[in-house]
Design brief:
With 385 residues, the chain is α/β, with parallel strands linked by helices. The chain has nine helices and 21 strands. The strands form six sheets. Strands 2-11-10-6-7 form a five-stranded antiparallel sheet.
């Protein structure tokens, strides 16, 4: 998890020499000194013209940026490794066209945009595709720069960098039917959850058709007549009943002195939680309740009923640091979702007692899962190279 330093407060415009400007100044100074020593007036006139061009460059660059504003446009939370469009807004508040360069230094990289002759009173949005390999909140300065027209001097002014880029943990792939069967089987192990099991199993009264056999299908669903005719195993496919809500509690556990393996296990657990939540929401169109048990801070509980809500609900995972004593969410934080949802705890702690503690405090059974478990329906995200 990474969090960049707070962006500096916007400051006034400042001038600086470019490399070509320094050479221009050096050559002009050397030639001027020689012409002065030799009393060559014609050459002195050329040197004065060079100095005038230098001053004119600084003045035009300063005029270009003093009334030009730039700001980072807020973007929805993105997943680590996901290509997302990052944008800045450039506004010309002067009375003449300007040519400037806008730069957004969010995170380790930077986006640079050339804005050529932006009309007076107009705004333009500049965008570029970025990838962030790690989760966290990324900020940084946003500046507008102009060296127009000669490039000897550049004038730079800071813009509005209040917006942060929120990067969620990387998500892998979960096979939807396998995930639902796993949840149904885990919940069915507790006799108090039979009602939830009935909601997630298939309704065998309505047969949709037949399809090829897949690993994990029940032999009772094999359609033997079609199997004999086609020479391969074919099973009945049913219209399934609506899936229940998913109540997902994330325990970001770390020991007091975590090792690199402990931190890697935490990141794997966060990726597993993100994958389960996103897959359940997209595949089954059911609400997902996400609760993050963070030590020493208020427990964040959010309900996602859409794709946009899903990313916002997962936002606390962007800056979770982990700890040895995560605080459990109180029972009333879930509202009525506990009674009508499948309850799962995703933990980075092997053999976590957190699910049992939640079961006792809420009176509802929770099942625990972690990145070390063998989950045939889950494929973790690829590690960045």
């Amino acid at each position: 998890m990474r969090r960049t330093a707070e962006p500096p407060a916007p400051a006034g415009a400042r001038l600086r020499f470019t490399t070509s400007g320094l050479w221009w100044l050096f050559v002009g100074g050397a030639v001027g000194a020689l012409a002065w020593y030799k009393s060559i007036n014609l050459v002195l006139i050329v040197v004065y013209a060079m100095a005038l061009l230098l001053l004119l460059n600084g003045l035009l660059a300063w005029l270009a940026v003093r009334r030009t504003g730039v700001s980072r446009v807020a973007v929805p939370p993105m997943f680590a490794g996901e290509r997302a469009e990052c944008r800045v807004k450039v506004t010309n508040d002067s009375t003449s066209p300007v040519t400037v360069t806008a730069e957004d230094r969010a995170g380790a990289g930077a986006n640079t945009f050339l804005v050529y002759r932006l009309p007076a009173g107009q705004s333009i949005y500049c965008s570029a595709w970025r990838e962030f390999p790690t989760r966290g909140r990324f900020g940084g300065p946003v500046t507008v720069v102009s060296g127009f027209p000669f490039g000897f001097l550049e004038c730079e002014r800071a813009g509005d960098a209040s917006g942060e880029v929120v990067v969620l943990p990387a998500h892998g792939y979960a096979e939807p039917d396998g995930l639902r069967r796993w949840v149904a089987r885990q919940v069915a192990d507790d006799g108090r959850a039979r009602k939830v099991q009935r909601r997630v199993t298939s309704d065998h009264a309505e047969v949709r058709g037949v399809r090829a056999y897949r690993a994990g299908d029940s032999l009772r669903d094999v359609h033997w007549r079609t199997t004999a005719r086609r020479g391969e195993l074919m099973v009945r496919e049913y219209d399934t009943a609506p899936s229940p809500e998913l109540v997902l509690v994330v325990e970001p556990w770390l020991p007091p002195n975590p090792t690199a393996a402990d931190r890697a296990r935490l990141e794997s657990a966060l990726s597993l939680a993100v994958t389960m939540a996103v897959t359940w929401r997209r595949a089954f169109d059911s609400p997902v309740v996400v609760a993050v048990a963070a030590p020493g801070r208020a427990v964040a509980v959010a309900t996602a009923a859409s794709e946009e809500d899903m990313r916002e609900a997962l936002t606390p995972l962007a800056d979770v640091a982990g700890g040895p004593t995560p605080d459990a969410p109180p029972a009333d934080a879930f509202g009525r979702h506990l009674a009508r949802g499948a309850r799962v705890v995703v933990s980075s702690r092997p053999n976590t007692p957190f699910a049992a503690a939640l079961t006792r405090s809420t009176g509802r059974p929770f099942v625990a899962v972690g990145p070390a478990d063998r989950l045939p329906w889950y494929l973790p995200p690829a590690r960045p190279v």
